[in-house]
Amino acid sequence: MDVFEAIKGRRSVRAFRSDPVKEEDLQRILDAARLAPSAGNCQPLELVVVRDRATKQRLVRAAHGQSFIAEAPVVVVVCANIPRTSGRYGRRGEELYCIQDTAAATQNIHLAAYALGYATCWVGAFDEGIAADAIKAPAGVRPLAIVPIGKLAEEPIAPPRMPLSKIVHEDSF
Fold first, then answer.
1. 3-154: CATH number
2. CB atoms inside a 10 Å sphere around CB 3
3. Which of 72, 78, 120, 126 has its CA nearest to residue 99?
4. Among 51, 69, 161, 163, which residue's beta carbon has the most beta carbons within 10 A?
5. Domain locations along the chain
6. What global pTM score does this model have?
């Protein structure tokens, strides 16, 4: 699949079938995350693959009751290993670069999953402490996104997007 087709076609899905995610597909999706750029190549990315029903339910609680998370056969919790970047870049690494790096990896997860025929949703509304407890994250590892992955149960409607003329500025605002 062409990257522009994936970018244009991908949607946030909140209804999943119980069909399993093929292991070879999951490995390709995770590898796409690993290949995302990171500041200074510090690679703060940590990925927790969750299949356990009880752990998924704890993630649902962390995500303020977003029950569709538990419907997906696989959930990936995208985390930043803060010391990997803060050791080199200090506070800016901790507060910005780790977030940018894991966001790039999360986008790669979405695009790779879509290209392989799977649906995803970027869940950012969650209590980090509860999520960290659910996945037993060690000190210094911060969960930043929860991504359920599975076959879509219903076709989502494309949301409206602002035209380029409203968001692109030449040389300055």
1. 3.40.109.10
2. 9
3. 78
4. 69
5. 3-154
6. 0.96
